[in-house]
Amino acid sequence: MSYPELIPAEPDMNRDRLPTFKEVLQRRTLSPVDLFSFYIYMRDQMFLVDYLDFWLDVTQHLALCRHYVRELRRSVLIETPEQEQPSKRSSAFLDQYGDVDNTAGPSTYDDDKHGDHHLSAFLRRETSEGNFSNGNTNHSPHSSLGSQQSDVRNSGERAGNSANRPPRASFMSSNFDRHFSDDSPTHTVGRPDIRASAEKILYTYLLPGSEREIILPQHIVHNIIQAIEEHMRDDPEVFDVAKDYVFQAMERDAFPGFLRWKALGNLIPASIMWRVALGLLGMFAGFWAGFTLIFLDQPKHIRCWVILPFTIGVYCLATQQYFMDPILALCGLSEHTFMHFSRIKEPFVRRLLYKRAVTALVVTVLVGVAVNVLFIFVPGYRL
Known about the structure:
Distance between the termini: 84 Å
Order of helices and strands: HHHHHHHHHHHHHHHHEEH
Shape: elongated
Largest sheet: 2 strands, antiparallel
Radius of gyration: 30 Å
Number of helices: 17
Helix content: 55-70%
Strand content: under 5%
Structural class: mainly alpha
């Protein structure tokens, strides 16, 4: 089966400021401050990519739930014959949960919490009324998202137990169940898939000793485990508190450093360390050659050779000071992994880096000229 993808928003090309963390997650930014660059930053520099993966998986779970409800609503509106009056009642019931079919923007980053609350309420009520256990558990979780983690915690046994319970009366009509069951070929997402998605998040990130366990307050983890395993919930509101906690943690602890490295610079720490080593080596070679030529009383045209090591040394040390390579910045390039570069497409960041590159080059030239003039024109004295 296919799953709904995260829908990127159109980038704001007229933004005259640095982007916010929310805009980065909404994919409204361009390189080097886009979501891809932030993911690499969290992976290679912060070593906290599991937190970002958790947030993205929870967001994808919300998209999955919206897609499921959207298909139910579309089935009510399109497939039901006009003469079947109960379907109108079903349609009206779904309509009260908001227009989940709105794809004008990124569906997984909607600011309307009210609509998300109604979505979760719909899924909870559907589960409590018996729709989830009324034939839908025949869909094996082994073919759904997160089946490996479900097997570890014996979720298949729980699903089998729930399937043996007598079905309750549905809040919708029997005609709705007959025509619009999520086992219908027109449905690409069923309730077992939503359940498997919720269990995958739980077993991958939250349970103690899990594969990619993230550190959250104990009460948050306990509430999620209780909601999923005891209350059999799989609606998006189960993860709301954890999602908000992770969002605020990344915004507070990771995002400022990301902007410092990507919006104010264009290098990564590994590259800067190599440049510092090369710069110190160049300065050492320049001082050694300069003092040697001075105390050998060599003519000035020979002393001009110190220009080469001093220029390399000053330039490399300036890149460490400004966290950027001025020449690469003027060429519109930013380093995302070691010696791998991407184009700077974000307009404000490109202008900002251009100004900083010019400033860094001016400082490099002034310091380089001063040092070279000192060692070239100082009077020689042969020892």
